[in-house]
Amino acid sequence: MKKLIDYTKILRSKNAGPLFITFDLIFNTKEDMQYVEQRLKKTDISQAYGVEQEKIDIICYGVVNSIKITFPRKNISGSLADNDIYGCQQHIPLANIVL
Amino acid sequence: MKIVALNGLLGYGYSEEALDIAFSEKVDYLGVDAGSTDPGPYYLGSGKSFTDRGAVKRDLALALPRALEHKAPFIIGTAGGAGSCEHVAWLKGILLEIAFEQNLSFKLGTVLSDVEAEYLLEKFKSGKLLPMCDEMPADEKAIKESTRIVSQIGIAPIIKLLEEKVDVILCGRACDTAIYAAPCIYEGYKEGLAFHMAKIMECGAMCSEPVAAADVMQGYMYDDYFELCPANPIRKCTVDRVAAHTLYEQSNPYMIYEPDGVCDLTNSKFEQVDARTVRVTGSVFKEAEEKTLKLEGVKCAGYRTICPATIYDPETIRNMDLIINTVTEFVKENTKNTLPENSYTIHFKLSGGAESSLGIIMDIVGKTQEIADTVCALARSRMLHCDYVGRKSTAGNLAFPFSPSDIHVGPVYEFSVFHLAKVDSLLETAKISTEVIGK
């Protein structure tokens, strides 16, 4: 059983402003990108992060074999309950999604 | 036209040799981004910079005389990290110090972009304040509580100052792209190419290999394309790196949203022209019918005291939920007659877990520092000695790395405003001034 991270060359998370978290998945090949694009479901992301499906944006950026995922942060950057101000360590639940 | 980006963030450093290479041919404009919201709301709230004064001075002291010598206007965006008038004053102080030490004189243009709460309330009441997501709705109370609000200016105020032939432009909160797009558009180049090049250049040499925010990038603007080449010969721009850059830190890699409109990269083409240079064509700009400015505001959320500790005993770690519950209830019970209701919050920030050790930070934010201290002391002592079934390590549950164990963090800020405002003019929040420095 391969996880999402096994298909990627780069898998990172970062703030897109303090309200949103964005994930960049960059692949070695177009085939890997397409494989993931077809199998990765919003329901899995929704479950992994506790975010409503309709708030999740997935955009395929074929120019560099990549997929971008963006949704609102549950805790706004720097709010009292936030644990990751820059948002750069939020990728693990995504990485562990089994495809 | 040649435009140079000093680096991705003023104060992060760059190679002096690379700067010399960049200035070994005619430079028309020099730019640097000096701010970001990434480090969180504290810096806008406190008026402090997240970059170090010494490092910022070093970066400016080498660049300023070269820019003046080349008569290349030097554009600095989001002064002092967060771009409020206090941050601008901080950076201006450094500029004046350098001018004095190096006997430099120049015409300085300044753009302040602070706005008053009244301005936002007016926008809110007239339906011109647009929230960016449900998690932060536009809210009258939040606006009124805000202690400092800035607007992200676009290219308009910078172009205004370029028309006045200033040598240095010091901006308050500004869109990162405005720094590099403004001079290109002022010189008559295409907006689509200008914004796309600006989006890549604002991160310095991030779009090169080896990657570095802390180095010099060179942009060359032509009528129908632009080219990027890092100044430092150890780096090169590649098609992949340059194309991938619009993924970074933004929600849509095909669209760059600006106060003036949107830069559409759907048909952008990237081409390797030599070993270190990439050419970009096809990026187009679509003007927005309604212009918007992004507003960022913060409020003081209280005063913080924290206590960090480690738990090594796996039995204690297994009982953590119970312990946290006990501590929370204990603090509530013990302060109910001495502290006002809702005068503090406790967050137990945990890392690690069952297999090795559990790191814990007791994070208390009180309405006053005194309240935070009191609650932290209660929580810490109660957790240290909290009992559970089968407990063998009865001397204490926590390993404290420090004495004193409790640390004052001081005032805490939270973002209170992060919205778009519809504006009649993209200059309406900008306070522009010019003055002559030196001689």
Molecular structure report:
The complex is a heterodimer of chains A (99) and B (439). Chain A has 99 residues and is α+β, with helices and mostly antiparallel strands. Helices cover 22% and strands 25% of the residues of chain A. Chain A contains 3 helices and 4 strands, in the order E-E-H-H-E-E-H. In chain A, strands 1-2-4-3 form a 4-stranded antiparallel β-sheet, covered by helices on one side. In chain A, a hairpin with a 4-residue loop joins strand 3 (57-61) and strand 4 (66-72). With 439 residues, chain B is an alpha+beta fold. In chain B, strand 15 and strand 16 (277-281) form a beta hairpin. The longest helix of chain B has 18 residues, at 85-102. In chain B, 50% of the residues are buried. Chains A and B meet through strand 2, strand 3 and strand 4 of A and helix 10, strand 19 and strand 21 of B.
The description of the largest β-sheet of chain B is:
10 strands, mixed
What would the average pLDDT of chain B be, to the nearest integer?
96
Determine the mean pLDDT of chain A: 96
Please indicate the count of domains of chain B.
2
Distance between the termini of chain A: 8 Å
User: Which pair of chains forms the biggest interface, and how many residues does each contribute?
Assistant: A-B, 31 and 35 residues
Lateral arrangement of strands in the main beta sheet of chain B: 15-16-11-10-1-2-3-8-4-22
Annotated CATH topology of chain A: Threonyl-tRNA Synthetase, Chain A, domain 2
Total beta-strand segments of chain A:
4
Estimate the strand proportion of chain A: 25-35%
Radius of gyration of chain A: 13 Å
Number of strands of chain B: 22
- Give the assembly state of these chains: heterodimer
Give helix % range of chain B: 25-40%
The H/E string of chain A reads EEHHEEH
Coarse shape of chain B: elongated
- How far is the N terminus from the C terminus of chain B? 30 Å
Domain count of chain A, please report it.
Answer: 1
Structural class of the secondary elements of chain B? Answer: alpha+beta
